[in-house]
Amino acid sequence: MSTYMNKVIFFVILIISFVAIASESPEKIKIKGGFMGKVIFPHKIHENITDNCQKCHAIFPQKMGGIQALKDNKTLNKKYVMKEICILCHKSNNSGPTMCYGCHDLILNFIPSGCCLIF
Question: Which residues on adjacent β-strands are paired with residue 67?
């Protein structure tokens, strides 16, 4: 094989590697949860469990800030997502939280910042 072909093959492999790295999904996604507190969504765990990414990605775009953009545009029906997507899936698979505080850090919203609680 010529030196030129070796360089071309190396270049193609290099580009494919960069694309693969750039398209990796995030480990966790941080979502603003309003007065209920933020949600740290364990994306990798869900990605490894499901066989159909479109269960969620039919609603949520696969891009950074996609969920917040839906919320800002008021096109995301939070109650539908929570009850019909998340909780229904968790119940049908008998895994994952089914109560608000299971995903939201609700308790932290009631403790003033910098406060030290002693029990």
Answer: none
Confirm whether pTM is higher than 0.85.
no
Class of domain 26-110: alpha beta
Query: In terms of Cα–Cα distance, which of 101, 111, 118 is closest to 38?
Result: 101
**Sign for the pseudo-dihedral over CA of 16, 22, 24, 25:** negative
Q: pLDDT confidence of 43, banded at 50, 70, 90?
A: very high
Cα 26 from Cα 40, distance rounded (Å)? 12
Task: Please report where in the chains the tokens 């609700």 appear, as a residue.
Answer: 106
Strand partners, 75: none
Q: Distance (Å, rounded) from C-alpha 28 to C-alpha 8?
A: 36
